[in-house]
Structures are given as structure tokens and as C-alpha cells.
Amino acid sequence: MSKGFSILVDTSKCTACRGCQIACKQWNGLPATQTKNWGNYQNPQDLSAVTWKLVRMADGTNGHGKVYWNFFSDQCRHCLSPGCMAVSENGEIKQDEKTGAVLFTPKTKDLDYQATLEGCPYNIPRQDPKTKRLFKCTMCFDRITNNEIPACVKSCPTGALVFGERDKIVEIAKNRAAELKKTYPTAAALNADDVRVIYVVKDDPTKYYEFAAGK
Prior knowledge:
Distance between the termini: 27 Å
Order of helices and strands: EHEEEEHEEHHEHEE
Number of helices: 5
Number of domains: 2
Radius of gyration: 17 Å
């Protein structure tokens, strides 16, 4: 039995309302990001030290000319064995034993940023250019340790985000993927046995985002 918590991200139920993205900013007191029109509804264009949750949007056509439009609420996966911790020798990055949340401390300013980023298969950590500190999703550690669900989960109007005990979420994710497979043969629960933020997709992961399933 795996201890701690997990989040299910059922992309088949996501409408790209971006409520989760805004809720993350509001709860964590993160400032707005200067944006521009870059030819995609996805905005801002990427994660940053002040954008820890981003609804990625991808469109294209399959081999039969059918158009697809996929939404992917990207964030730290809170891996069971975090690759980012490989460069942390003095407690700069910690994994909370009770919740499983992977936490970056102010001491991350002393880490080699590129080495930390390369250690993450999902391309998540971002560096503040001024302070040099590294930032990412905290799984709303301050909320979940006070019996509250993450802000992003609470904001989701379609039930695409579900939070709970890890073993229960893994079961829900795998059952949901099996259900979707009846209609979408490529459906899967991505890396369910290795991460705490589990994405259920109905299409090829690369049609959502380059790092959707890890590198």
C-alpha cells in the first residue's frame, strides 16, 4: 500500500476553462504573467516561477483527416522517486513522508538549475531570474495538511480533477482508463505506478504535450 495522496487528472473531462490555473495563482498569491498572442489559446505560453499550473492546448489532425483538440492541465507530478532530488544534497528539495508532496525550499537558489531540470522527466521546475530560487506546484501542501483539497481540484467544474488517498486514486485512474479504452483504444493512465499526479488520456500522449508521458 502506498501512503500519501494523489491527484487524478482526467483529460477526457477537461474543457480548458482554466479554472484550475487561476485557482493556483489565487491561492498561492502568484502575480499575473505578461502575455502575448502567439497563435494558440494556451496562455501564458509556458510554466514559470509564477505559473505553476498551465492548461496546455494542442490541436491537429489524425491520419484520417479528423481534427483533434486536446487539453492537458500540466503541473509537477510529485513523483514517488523524484528525479529532481538527485542534485539535492543539503535538503534543498524534500519529499514529505506523510503526504508524498515534493517540496522546494528557499535553498533551491543554490542548486544547479539545468541539472535539476534535466532530472525531471516532465520538464517542470522553473527558476526565478532574480532570486535564482526554483518553483513548482506544491500540491497545495498548506491546504492538504489542514484537511482541505488542493485549490485546483476544488475549482474544477467538470470533475476532471479528483484528490484523495493515493491507492484509491490509482484504482480510479486505472478503471477510468479501462472504461475509455472501449471507445478509445489508446486510452491510458500515464505512469500511474510512478507518480502522484496521474493523467488519464484517451489519445497518444504526444498529441497533448511533448513531455506528457515523460522523456
